[in-house]
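re: ur question from the group chat, yeah i did fold both. here u go
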Amino acid sequence: MSVKLLAATVVVCLAFVVGLSWMISKEIDKISTATSDNAQWTVAQVDVELLRYRLALETDGSDPADLRNLRRRFDVFYSRMSTLLYGNSFIQLRNSPTFSGSLERLLTFLEETVPIIDGDDPQLIAALPDLQKAAVEITPVAREMTLAGLAAFAENTRDRRQEVMKTLVILAVFVMILLAILIVAAAKLMQMNAIARRHAAEVEQASEQLKTIVETSLDAIVLADFRGRILTQNPAADTMFGSLQDRATVNLKDLFSPDETKEKFDFIGTGKPLPAGSRRFEIQSLHKDGIYFPAEVSIDRSGGGEDQVYVAYIRDISRRKNAEDALRDARDRALAGEKAKSEFLAVMSHEMRTPLNGILGTMQLMRPLSTGKREIELLDRMESSGRLLLSLVNDVLDLSKYEAGKLTLEDRAFALPDLLKGIVDTNRPMATANGNSLNWSWVGPERNWVRGDQRRLRQILLNLVSNAVKFTRNGEVEIEVEEMASPSGTIEFRVIDTGIGIGEDDIERIFQDFETLDSSYARQAGGTGLGLGIVRRLVNMMGGEIGAESEPGEGSLFWVRIPFNSVDHSDVVNDDVEVPITTPTGERSLSVLLVEDNEINRFVARELLNSEGHKVTEAANGQEGVELANETLFDLILMDISMPVKDGVAATIEIRAGDGASSGTPIIAVTAHALPEEVEGFLKSGMQDCLSKPIERNALKRILAQVAYSNAVVTTDKVAHQNGTKLPYFDPSQLEALASALGFEQVETLINRLRAEGSATTDRLMGMSTNDPELAAVVHQFAGSCASFGLTSLRESLYGIEGKKKSGALVSNSEIEALKPLWKKSESALLSWASQQRDYNG
């Protein structure tokens, strides 16, 4: 029965297609005829419009209406020609050589006539005879074009009809093919029907299997309706929550903690879709025994409206949570152990530095007393060994600080040639002892000044150069410096040696901690293997990269690329003037308060000071130092940082805040904690400079020279600082360093420039609103100038205003108004110092 119905359907479809094809053929013929007639009329109308134009030319031009009629007829004729030229219906006509030739002649006629028609009336009247003659001459051309167009239309229409008939034939063929396909499809459908019945049986079987899976699942599976009422659940849910028949309530929300269901299940009963993050979550679930346990819920909905249902999978994750807690505790214990190890390394490194400082300092004291060549040689070896041990301790200390995240970088201007010269000078004795030459040079254009962390760069290059010198015998070690073509201002340092070289497999390994290529007792060179590991960390901190190229027996090339900021003139003047270590003639003996808790360090410092002819008073902790500073006027205070009772920073703040005899005395920090961020903290507390342990005789003499030369590092005029300390109006150490390097006359010229800038800037600030967007930029620029000239108090006030502007805090008018008198007092202190220097220099 179904086959007969299908055959009848095919016959009906075939008859419908044939009839439709006939109707389409008739309709196409009608449309084609209408379009052709319209186009033929347009072509024929050209001849008519030309005749009308000729009739309009039959006038003497005396009547303006005749001239207007003439122009209108010409425009109509021109319009007909434009239609033939641009109309889509005439594309094929324009491809006809006869038609297109006549069309071009007519267009030429029109283009020649347009200026006359568009001209003024007298011109048109004068040209009427010529226009009549031209129109008569062009009439045969127009008629020729019209006849050619009509003939082309006739031929084109015939061709189009033939094409349509061909198309219909093809359509009929395709319809027959389609019919055959339908017959085949019908057979296929019958086959698919059989397959569908088979699949239905398989689906039913799969449904039974799924039911078995659900019933045997260890996770609770719950099906709830639109309002959360539980419709059914699997046996695991019965075990976890109790059967539906045994429970007083059967709502999905009742299975969980009431404190969490309001947030987690707010979509139930609302019809709102489940947010992506709400489909899987953890929650406290209520066991049938009345005990809450951690559960993981995965929920989604099926259907829409009130017919939708919710399917929830609920898993007891108590064991997983217990395992996570145990893992977390283990991790915390491991981190605590790692922290304890880092702290132990840091403490031990620091404690080891203390006796090392004593040893190295004592050897400095012994040098003037040692006159014999043998004694000096022994001292050299002792000092070399002590400094090697100190460098190892410093490596461990740097490693522990890096692991603790306490290593930070400083950004200041420095001269690369000076740094490289110092590195070469430091390593030259060892290089000479190994028979090596050691030099450095620029490759390409020189860039002498940069901004960055000078201390870390020196540490990186010292490590690389010392390694090169250590593993090279009777060879060469070269340091090449080259500025890269990079917008980041990157400079590449290359340390090249002709030493023993490194195997390709070992290049990556040498940058790991505690790795040495030869760990045997018979190795040629010592070391912990920490150096290159720390170097790579420092390079990464500075935003650079490091690598090596080497062949065994051929030497090695270590390269470091580090980006540096650009330097302006004020950076160079402020930060990098070398202070001479020699003191002027007539240096006076200073009264020095030494605050140090370690007896050995006190002994070394005392002897160094006594050897320079200075008087020393000692204090064993910060509190004793504060009491002595309040009672006695000292020329200089050397303040240790880590001390019992009261540390050096707290002692300095208390001395500066009080009105004791030495409240204005310069205080110099003496510590092994010489990191940039720590030094900045020392300066903010009221200290003027920092000496690193072990104390170097030359560094100490430089500080003493500044104090003896200027009579004081801090003037007695002070102002209250925001952290409670008292800052000087003027710290002359900056200008004294400049005077030593440049001469007092040059410094006096700079002072005059500062006075002009200060007066102009303070006057401008007095006229600015606290909300002025340029306020921060103005105070920042002026603060930089004040820092360069040691105007400490004014600099800090300006920095305070700048900080408020950058953080969005309010700046009061009184803060701005206070700058003018503060500048006057700072200027007065500056001029007083200049006057003293002028008298001193004669």
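okk and heres the other one u asked abt
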Amino acid sequence: MPDISLFGTLNTGLLGIYASKLAMNVVAHNIANANTPGFSRQRPELLTMPPIPISSLTQPSIPLQIGTGVYVRDIKRVRDAFLDIQFRQTNNKYNYWDTITANLHFVEQLVAEPSEAGVRYLFDSLWSGIEEVITDPTNTAAKRGLVSRAEELVQHIQDLYMRLEQLRVDLDNEIAQRTQQINAMVKRLADINAKVRTAVSLRYTPNDLLDERDRILDELSNLADIYYYEDNAGQITLRIGNQIVLTGQDVVELRALERPFGKGFKEIFAGNSKVVFNDGKLKSLFDLRDEILVKYMNRLDEFVLSLTDEFNLIHQDGFNGDGSVTGLKFFNDISADRIEDSKLYRLAGAKRVENGPIKFISGMSDRKDFSDILTKPFIEKGAIVFFDGTEKIFAARVNPYDKVEDFQNALSSISDRWFDLKVGAHGDGGYRLYFESNQNLRNTLALDFNGNMFNTMGFATKNVDVFVVDRKDFKVSSGSYKIAINGKEEILNITASTTLEDLANQLNTHFGSDIKAFVHDDKLLIIPTKANEFNLKNIKLSDSGGLFTQANIRVETYKALDTSRETLENIVGRSQAFSIRIGATEIRIDPTKTTLRDLARMINDANTGIIADVTPHGKFVLRGSRSLDFELKKVIQGPEALWTALGFIDPDGNPLNDWDEGFVFVNPFEPPKDQRMRYIKADALFIDKQVPKDPYRFVEKFAVNSTIKSNPETLAVDIGYTEENPNWDAKVFKPSGRANTGIVELLSALRNKKVLNDGLESFNEYLGSVVAELGVESETAMKIKSNTDLMKKEIDGERERVKGVSLDEEMANMIKYQQAFNAAARVMTAVDDMISRVIDKLGLVGR
């Protein structure tokens, strides 16, 4: 019966030798590449040869499956594709945050905070210079020091800005270099694709080529987010960012092309399509160049723009020390180079809306009806002395539990009064108590001798000092007394029969231009006239003869009606409420209560992105804030009469439109040229539009005015004053004198004025917040980088555990395959002996 031959057994042993030898070669290859980057350990795939069914002498009826040995079907890489994907995704993030961290650290070094080389130190130094000028406004050295410190701040900010811009240029150059690096790697992958396809078609596994491909993919994952898949031919299709750059052997080369705008920074294109990166080093380079660095440069731009405009609007409202220069700006305006490429940043009214006539003064208000006001009782006896500032003076009295109506009647009975106390509607329909006059009530002094009457009627008060002589103390020796008031000397004659009233008449006759003497409730009141601003400090009284000393003259302080509140009712002549609208936000205004500064506060509190302000001499200002890209780009509506009164526009001549609340004052959709013509009367500041993905570049125009730089004596110090005017347009503007430091005091107050970051931060807070923002962003980036690094190392460690070469394991495999080789060789030796026995020994019996 047939049986497997000895030669079949010999072949089985031979196959064992070949398989073990091949396995030994794989082990040797692994050991040789133990330190080769990207190498994946390999394993021979050993399979049994197909068995042969044979009937034997011992099993004649059922064929036996006789094994025929072993063969190596393939040599496989030991690799986990899932771990590769995880590693590359994590590697993307790590390289993104590593680049961000390194560059933010560099920016922190440039900012140099806190140190004496930082912006905040120089900013504080500038303000110290302002304080020195306040201390000694006539000191030329202090003024020169202030100008020098301003120049130092300008130079430092511009240097920091230039260094940030240079960093952007360096990042842009690196983007171009990394693009070429990617192209080289993609071309190498295309070459590997071709070789892999050939190997697959020949039905063998190109392990080392696949290792090289994975190594290149690992390197690519440093630079960008990559996505790939493998086809049946073993070739990969590769996508970088949002663009496919490799399909088989076809490569779409990346190109770094300059933008057609700005400074020509580069964008990356695959063919004609822009590549958008989502992670990796290139994503970080783009984010740093176009967002992060631009953000901090924009912070400097905002600081410079706001500082320049605020400084200038205050500075040009003052006089230099000798009163010869006014209207001069401290910094150069940061204005647009071309009106066609500009946007409207700021409007300032042309009128100094101050020192106009006060004809209405409001007391209690928002009452539901007349009786709520007229029936209000006075608890105590009292009186108010009214003085018109020159000649007329009288007193109006109330008794306990008299009502406001009684006081109103008492005033009505005085024929030579120059005002009326009225009750009328105001705002949105409530009632109020108010003084009304056809004369300027600024010239009126009203003294409350009860101390509570104005409070009962809801009027605001102020303290006023007057000289007082009591009748009981008027015991003066007869004689002639020399009295001087403000340098004017006169003789007052006192006899035994002279009364307080007589003394008052003499004082009024001789000194009526400086004081008004009036007897009220057994008291002689000596009141400064309007010419002396009702201010006792402006009265220089000389009593060489001792008249007032004998009369025990003293100073008493009384509550007086505050006539200085410049409400919109006085400015626009309207008591009914009206609205202005900024975008979709309505602001309701009661002109009987609202001043210009109240209006500015209401606009700022509305959080519309429009910032309102008032200059030292009453020019109303509107600005666009950061949230509106420093542009007045919201529609602003409101009565034409309001904007005309504030000096923004000229009236259209049609009074029917004056209080139309739908009147469009600011239309951001108008071309800049039309806006310039529309606001030709106002002080309009147009700035350059921002180029996409670029900073505003205001810092590049930051400079101290050349006139002030060359002659610090032109520095504005004196706030000056405007004279009273009949139409709320103070055109007469005069200096106060060298000792007046009003302007530099206002400049000093700018330090803590909230004008930056949509009106939320002052200059002092803003610099601190920028430094803090940079520090927090840098620390956050460092933490994310550290966490990502830990994750990357953990995944890489697991990946190396799978694919890496373990020398101990390879030595064990070497011994295993060596023993298998020896055993297979021993099988062949044994079979050889058997064959020799059969050939040489069998059949020799009987020879």
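fwiw on the second one: The radius of gyration is 47 Å. The first strand starts at residue 42 and ends at 48. idk if thats what u expected
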